[in-house]
Design goal:
Largest sheet: 13 strands, antiparallel
Distance between the termini: 36 Å
Number of helices: 4
Strand content: over 45%
CATH architecture of the largest domain: Beta Barrel
Shape: globular
Number of domains: 2
CATH topology of the largest domain: YmcC-like fold
Helix content: 10-25%
Order of helices and strands: HHHEEEEEHEEEEEEEE
Strand order of the largest sheet: 6-8-9-10-11-12-13-1-2-3-4-5-7
Number of strands: 13
Radius of gyration: 22 Å
Length: 267
């Protein structure tokens, strides 16, 4: 039945969006079904209740990247003296809706302060049943991966995740990535990156050259182990529908190290 198919399609799209609009459309399409079909009233009511049940018990998925293929985010990076140290672009190459939310592939290109390309890789993100997942592979130094590309690399991850509907005071799950590098079966080194102590400390309005955004402020600690241990504390400002707007980094002793901020959005 064509009305039933349209109804299911609208349900999948609007589950992640405006609930008031969704309910309005349910009422509208309910009238259309009654008018255009010969289903018994009980069948219609049962169908409507099934969809409403999906709304009530389902989890809203809020995406922390642009939901448009081709959209590009451009960031500039600064040291502790506000000198530009490089630039990164993140472009949404694939965006698709899924039964439980949405997923995307992000093409990342990083440049040094002279504009030379130093990294080029893909990230995967997804929102599923109200949880947003970040690909942890971006936390590994891409220059190091390139240096060892002819050797055996084994990577295991516990990807970052967070409720897509954030609230002040939430404690977020840790993330971890481990990479073992071997040559002819002999292990040469192990690198571990742990993201811990993640907390939503509040909401703030943040303004950058790309515009003004309402953001969730999240603090976390990144510990990198590769022979020696390095601890970096950071604060990130995330905006629904866009992603990271700004980040600041501090040493383990709370000394300011630098920042990154969104300077351009191309949609």
């Amino acid at each position: 039945m064509k009305f039933k198919m349209k109804f299911i399609h609208i349900h999948q799209i609007l589950l992640r969006r405006n609930i008031d609009l969704y309910i309005f459309l349910i009422i509208l399409l309910f009238k259309l079904i009654l008018k255009e079909t010969h289903m018994k009233n009980k069948q219609v009511i049962g169908f409507i209740l099934a969809l409403l049940s999906g709304l009530v018990f389902g989890q809203e998925c809020i995406f922390y990247y642009p939901e448009t293929e081709g959209a590009e985010l451009v960031y500039q990076h600064f040291d502790n003296k506000d000198k530009i140290t490089g630039k990164t672009s993140q472009k949404v190459t694939v965006y698709r809706q899924t039964a439980n939310g949405a997923e995307a592939e992000i093409a990342v290109k990083s440049f040094d302060d002279k504009g030379e390309l130093i990294a080029d890789y893909l990230l995967e993100v997804r929102c599923e049943a109200g949880i947003f997942y970040f690909d942890m592979s971006g936390y590994i130094n891409q220059e190091m991966i390139k240096a060892y590309e002819n050797m055996e690399m084994k990577v295991s991850t516990e990807n970052l995740e967070m409720p897509s509907n954030l609230k002040e005071g939430q404690i977020l799950k840790d993330g971890k990535i481990t990479m073992d590098i071997s040559n002819s079966g002999m292990k040469l080194m192990t690198m571990e990156v742990d993201i811990s102590d993640r907390k939503v400390v509040g909401k703030e309005n943040v303004t950058t050259p790309a515009g003004s955004f309402e953001c969730y402020k999240i603090t976390q600690t990144t510990t990198t182990k590769m022979g020696m241990k390095m601890v970096v504390k950071s604060t990130e400002w995330l905006s629904p529908g866009t992603g990271m707007i700004k980040s600041e980094s501090y040493s383990g002793s709370d000394k300011y190290m630098g920042k990154s901020e969104l300077v351009e959005i191309n949609r």
